[in-house]
Amino acid sequence: MTLLSLTNMQTNIGEYAVLHDISLTVPEGGVFVLLGRNGAGKTTTLRSIMGMWRPSPGSVMFRGQDITALHTADIARLGIAFVPENMGIFGGLTVEENLVLATAKGKFDRDRLNRIYRLFPALEKFWTKQAWSLSGGQKQMLSVARAIIEPRDLILIDEPTKGLAPAIVDAMAEAFREISDTTTILLVEQNFEFAKSLGRDMAVIDDGRIAHAGSMADFVADRALQDRLLSLSV
Ligand SMILES: Nc1ncnc2c1ncn2[C@@H]1O[C@H](COP(=O)(O)OP(=O)(O)OP(=O)(O)O)[C@@H](O)[C@H]1O
Question: What sequence ranges are listed for the domain ABC transporter (predicted)?
Answer without folding.
Answer: 4-232
